[in-house]
Amino acid sequence: MKPLYSGIIPPMITPLTARDTLDIAGLEKLVERLVEGGVAGIFALGTTGEAPSLSYRLRRELVEHTCRFVNGRVPVLVGITDTSLVESARFTNEIADFGVAAAVTSAPFYFPAGQPELREYLEELLPELPLPLVLYNMPALTKISFHREVIEWALDQEKIIGLKDSSGDLTYFKRMVKLAAEKRPDWPVLIGPEELLAESVLAGGHGGVNGGANLHPRLYVDLYEASARDDWETARQLSAKVLDLSNRIYHVGQHGSAIIKGLKCSLSLVGICDDFMAAPFHRFHESERKIIAEHLEALGIQ
Amino acid sequence: MKPLYSGIIPPMITPLTARDTLDIAGLEKLVERLVEGGVAGIFALGTTGEAPSLSYRLRRELVEHTCRFVNGRVPVLVGITDTSLVESARFTNEIADFGVAAAVTSAPFYFPAGQPELREYLEELLPELPLPLVLYNMPALTKISFHREVIEWALDQEKIIGLKDSSGDLTYFKRMVKLAAEKRPDWPVLIGPEELLAESVLAGGHGGVNGGANLHPRLYVDLYEASARDDWETARQLSAKVLDLSNRIYHVGQHGSAIIKGLKCSLSLVGICDDFMAAPFHRFHESERKIIAEHLEALGIQ
Amino acid sequence: MKPLYSGIIPPMITPLTARDTLDIAGLEKLVERLVEGGVAGIFALGTTGEAPSLSYRLRRELVEHTCRFVNGRVPVLVGITDTSLVESARFTNEIADFGVAAAVTSAPFYFPAGQPELREYLEELLPELPLPLVLYNMPALTKISFHREVIEWALDQEKIIGLKDSSGDLTYFKRMVKLAAEKRPDWPVLIGPEELLAESVLAGGHGGVNGGANLHPRLYVDLYEASARDDWETARQLSAKVLDLSNRIYHVGQHGSAIIKGLKCSLSLVGICDDFMAAPFHRFHESERKIIAEHLEALGIQ
Amino acid sequence: MKPLYSGIIPPMITPLTARDTLDIAGLEKLVERLVEGGVAGIFALGTTGEAPSLSYRLRRELVEHTCRFVNGRVPVLVGITDTSLVESARFTNEIADFGVAAAVTSAPFYFPAGQPELREYLEELLPELPLPLVLYNMPALTKISFHREVIEWALDQEKIIGLKDSSGDLTYFKRMVKLAAEKRPDWPVLIGPEELLAESVLAGGHGGVNGGANLHPRLYVDLYEASARDDWETARQLSAKVLDLSNRIYHVGQHGSAIIKGLKCSLSLVGICDDFMAAPFHRFHESERKIIAEHLEALGIQ
Fold first, then answer.
1. B186-202 burial, b if ≥16 CB within 10 A, otherwise e?
2. pTM higher than 0.95 for the full model?
3. Inter-chain touch C53–D281, beta carbons under 8 Å
4. How far is C243 from chain B, CA to nearest CA, in Å?
5. Does residue B121 fall inside a structural domain?
């Protein structure tokens, strides 16, 4: 039995031209780049998509255009995480008809819920959703992790169809892979941090939701495929390239926003879309942009 | 020169009867209890008000009714914190005409902004707001604190009119009191944790935004007033009562939600409003409710 | 019934002239400064004393000379915290005869013990000690706090005679004051952070173990005494001076070592002792020393 | 060019029969089990060895006997981490002649040093040591990590000969592997968490310092060797066994001490040594011991 999703599902950045203004032309080019790059799906409105910083109006607009541009070629997953269950449910209902394959939620992230509360939250959310649900473990930003008991419960819910883990804790990831494999071989367990993509496949994972795939989808797809077919010589070489991309693009400037800024700046430099950032962040200054440009050249990315 | 606000401004709980359903009758009784209790204002939609867990529809409804019930007797402050600047601004514009005195914002709480980014965020938010702004320091839930340099900048903005500090770090509080006193004697610096109310006044603070004032406003008002007139013998006695209330009402049950649950349960027991909690939390079970009832009796609260 | 200790018990810095070399002449001058400044005791080998960074040989030497210089004028308390119970006990036995009044221990700080484990640790340590014991709550550096249940147990142990709290959490402090007052009115509860000295006395505390008292003991003694006799006008003025000293002396340079560096540099500038720091820290450079010198002048400290 | 060490170097538990009493017979049996199990070295006095909880007298005794029992068959590495540079250096000099191959140090763990301070600490420590030095990254217990700039400096020090990383952050591990490979192909980079052993070898690592190898050295040696020769089918099977051992042995009982307790209890059950724990921990109760016994049977470990 194959997992429902496998391969690379980029957490798509959200192209903007100004506050609350979508870069629609940029979005179209980005979607083409991803689909042509061989991705297995697109995850809109995740952390890399700056979802919590966007208005709901713009989020709807983004989903609508993304689905239109994708046009059924790959599944579109959409982040619905909110601190309010009612808003999560409302938004999911508004976008369900655009052609969305699944909703994705992490934990409500203002009040840190206890694990029983987290399970009850999902229990209450589930019937409100007109879409299947993927869980998204992101403790660095939500303050809490999905513990084993919540995942075990989730594996019994038909409507919950997979897990994305961005904890960076590969031991946790392996434990979740094992739980899923025992109960639901159709349940994909996908890794967030791209630096661990090859290792996550060795560990039994089914693919990556990797920010860098916005910029160079083929590299990540090739790395996943080499790993999945046990071609570890190739995987090692490609993994070294991914690490190099990470070292060069995600550490220019300081503060936690460096990853998204680096990606947006890179995509702007290669002519895909604007690099406007939603508040509280701002695009790179010219000096940082120059460094990114040099790094892109060194990486051979155009 | 007197600070703009001084005294007790309770962070009002949000009475609910069901998911996304306001307990309007309960709200009216609660507002009366607070105003009659001598509060200096009401702060709706803070952490104690479960704001991030509520739909925007219900938040609007709450503000509208609260302003109607208060009817100008005390200023109504409203929390507008969101992870999205656009949503914060939109909401503030929607409620400004209801008779709101000021908006209150903490830091955008999904992405932890660096301090320069936090300042820029406020700089961009300010012109979008039709109301003056109070800052709300809540690092345990927003991940970041307002550092000295941001507060120094804020003191130069006429439209920013005060600070509520819920860090629990009284040294930080004293530093901010000193900054404000030097530049803007009209700037109130208010303390969140009620256990520190008397000490915060000794430290130069101007009052409290204390959850317990929902339940027993007069106790907190009396404690503030005794402290403010340097009647420390009375203040010590009342402070012991506040600590006793805190020990009895906020530590039943586990998880971080115990404070709000304890307050809502107590208000339900004394006949003010329903104790329904917004997801991801739930009201106390009967066994916990019984303990709270006993504690209320021991505290002499009816 | 009076608490066993009350007033200011400075956490004495350890004067060094080189790695593993005590500045004996400096120590003598420092002890005189403290005793003449009116302190209620001296706490050697705490955090401010860089205890964990010193060899046991030097620690013994320091205790021996300190007791000799103090010569019974005030009680000498000595930090015995170690990650190894056996080493803590051995050291305490070695120094007991020098004239030490009490040992002081925080939690073993490599492995973070659970609360029952922490209680058992103290239970096993206690019979090994030829001295009474003061508990020292320092969660920022030991990773764990002494929770209520451990303090309640400690209050039943005759040999445990007090608590120093350096958590910076005045609500915790107040809770502990209340526990002690109910069971053991002889039990002093002393505050670490000097910025909170006045407020801690209002809260029922019995004095301070304040680093700044190394530099200006009289200021802290006066502040304590004004607070203790309910002279809050004086207390407020002196408290502002303490905050000013803290702002000027403890925030030069970066990293967590700024407080001890600032104190040692200041004591060197006023001619008391050398400012050599134990590894992993180093004394200030000339540029930082100049800033400290200016601040001392502004503070009127010679 | 081969790394100086490769394969499995167990962080040996310290067999005790009572407080400050070494279980010498147990130690001999344990050493035999490890050497016969094919380990590439033995690491005494690490975290798993409870080093910080032991007296220096016992530490010396342990090293002396360990070297005697090993008798040159494999290199013996010894943890020298202390909060005091002087004590670290003193201890290293005392044990150097017993036949120790290298000293191992993590960061001084009471005061959290800044990165420049950490580098200077190592710079001062190095000339005091009569042995080569391995760095040990253990941020969960030392509060700080060895950052890139410190490792880059370390790679230029001939006397620093490798890195053990117990951060659990495989992305960090990969970055360090890359740095080492570029500058010092002889520098082993070894992984702490055994659940990541196979993945760490794929990532370029040279082996594991894995607690479970105390109990079942052959399993870890086989897993390392399969990974090192690119036999990933075997590696996956053995890796699943390691994860199973981890799930069964390290999560009985609560608190952070569960791993060492589980190991010692297991070794006691299979007749190797006593399971006495140094304070602040205690051996398992009978009920937990029974669970461990069942798990050992399920794992086929005798």
1. ebbbbbbbbbbbbbbbb
2. yes
3. no
4. 8
5. yes
